[in-house]
Amino acid sequence: MQLFDLSGHTAVITGGNGGIGLSMARGLVKAGAHVAIWGRSESKNAAALGELTGLGKGEIGAFVCDVTSEDSIAAAMAATLDRFGQVDSCFANAGVGGGRALPEMTAEAWDATMAVNARGVALTYAHVTKHMIERGGGGKLLATSSGQSIMGTNRSSNYAASKAAVNGLTRGAAFELARYKITANAFLFGFYETDMTEAADPRFAEWMTKRIPLRRFGDHEGLEGLAVFFASAASDYITGQCLPVDGGLSIS
């Protein structure tokens, strides 16, 4: 048996139709997993489906899902189970930026960020773990967090707070679900080129690059192996961890 063969494994990736989520999907597909993409945009879902099909022996599905809506999550979960029969790992990756300075904060800005980045993860996990427990236990929960959850940056308090909530959720889930052999971990990503970072002030990217000890952005190819390792049995004894994946940024 190959160490990282994911044949027969089914993974859900929210926000898997672009950026970090799509990169992780590539790795999982290449390792033989079935992958269910959950994303809001039908056109981006279709493009991701086209890109991933044929990369491995696993099947690919793409389902419209808005993680701010529990009804939408429930529908995507039902469609995924109807297609694949089970979910073995869940990558809660869907997220938004939109950081604001505190003097400019509004209730709407705060709630909009929290709805996707924090509540969306919790509700996705609620539906996925119910299925995992009912089928007898076992599973992997992986969340996309951010180095900003443990580091201070300008004009990003609501974003940082939403990702800090993900870290707390990860630790709580790991403790609560260990009895069911379900693990939970989070990735505190540093600077990767995505649609979200492209919308940021270019000076932010320049500042970040100078602070990163490896002096470069994260590479999307490396995310493929990261996803496969954490979906595989090789990571079974790792749980409750919030792992910086940032080129050393968090220690600089």
Automatic annotation (TrEMBL):
It is an enzyme of class 1 (oxidoreductase). Gene3D superfamilies: NAD(P)-binding Rossmann-like Domain. Residues 9-185 form the Ketoreductase domain. Keywords: Oxidoreductase. One of its GO terms (biological process) is fatty acid biosynthetic process. Its EC number is 1.1.1.100. GO terms for molecular function: 3-oxoacyl-[acyl-carrier-protein] reductase (NADPH) activity; quinone binding. It comes from the Bacteria. Belongs to the short-chain dehydrogenases/reductases (SDR) family. This is 3-oxoacyl-[acyl-carrier protein] reductase. It comes from Altererythrobacter epoxidivorans.
